[in-house]
Each structure stands twice: as structure tokens, then as C-alpha cells.
């Protein structure tokens, strides 16, 4: 399914065009080790520009509007965080609220790949087998 991006400022968040879902129901968690490009990926998607310099980010949220091919609008709360296995309470909360997960790792950093695998195993353990799996390499 392909999605078209809609600029947040051109849409009214509480518009009657939202036929289903809310920002809370459509929570996308972008998660991975620090310094692998989570912020850059999200900002490139939302704003259309790529950030080349690293600015440490603990956690940020962006509400973004998408329009599906069937002309329905959905609010998606994109939450990106660099929580790790070192902060179990914060990690557990993040995994429990997520409806979808995008695990990010650095192609130039083997350790980040191993950390992403640990995060994925943790997500499967915490959320059970009821997770739909979609794999993509960007």
C-alpha cells in the first residue's frame, strides 16, 4: 500500500475527514541505538530534508497526516527514541505503546545491528506472537 505525505500545517488535526484512528491509535515507534540516523530518517520523511550532523535526541514525537489510496486520512504519531536495554522501564513503556515499529541500525556499525536484533527480540517477547512482521531495508 502506498501512502502520500500531507503537510501537517495544511490539515486540521480534528477534521471530520478522519474516518478511523487517532494519533494515539496509530503510534509508530522508530527505535534503535544512538547515532544511527533515526532523527535524520524521520525528518527527511516529514520535512523533506536530510540532517547530516548528529544532534543527540532522547525522544521526540511528530504527528503526521497520511492519505491512503482510498482517500482516507490518518493521523500517525511518529515517536523516535534511542532508548536501549540499559533503561528497561523506559524501553518497556515505549514498546507497549507502539502499534508499529521501525528498527534502525547503522550499516557502518555492526554493534548497532546486534543491538537492533536485541531490541527486536525484546519487542517480540513483550508483545507476543501477535505482531505483524514487515521487513524493509532502506
TrEMBL record:
Q: What is this protein called?
A: Uncharacterized protein
**Xref: SMART domains:** RAS (SM00173)
Keyword match GTP-binding: yes
Gene Ontology MF terms? GTP binding; GTPase activity
Its membrane topology: Lipid-anchor
* UniProt superkingdom: Eukaryota
Give its localization.
Answer: Cell membrane
Q: Name one GO cellular component term.
A: plasma membrane
InterPro entries documented for this protein: P-loop_NTPase, Small_GTPase, Small_GTPase_RasD
Keyword match Cell membrane: yes
Q: Which UniProt key words apply to this protein?
A: Cell membrane, GTP-binding, Lipoprotein, Membrane, Methylation, Nucleotide-binding
Amino acid at each position: 500500500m502506498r501512502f502520500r505525505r500531507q503537510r501537517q500545517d495544511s490539515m486540521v488535526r480534528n477534521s471530520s475527514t478522519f474516518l478511523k484512528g487517532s494519533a494515539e491509535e496509530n503510534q509508530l515507534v522508530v527505535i534503535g541505538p544512538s547515532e544511527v540516523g533515526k532523527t535524520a530518517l524521520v525528518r527527511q520523511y516529514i520535512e523533506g530534508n536530510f540532517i547530516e550532523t548528529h544532534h543527540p535526541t532522547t525522544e521526540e514525537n511528530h504527528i503526521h497526516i497520511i492519505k491512503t489510496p482510498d482517500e482516507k486520512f490518518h493521523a500517525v504519531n511518529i515517536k523516535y527514541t534511542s532508548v536501549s536495554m540499559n533503561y528497561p522501564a523506559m524501553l518497556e513503556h515505549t514498546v507497549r505503546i507502539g502499534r508499529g515499529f521501525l528498527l534502525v541500525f547503522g550499516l557502518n556499525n555492526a554493534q548497532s545491528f546486534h543491538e537492533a536484533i536485541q531490541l527486536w527480540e525484546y519487542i517480540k517477547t513483550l508483545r507476543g506472537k501477535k505482531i505483524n512482521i514487515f521487513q524493509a531495508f532502506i
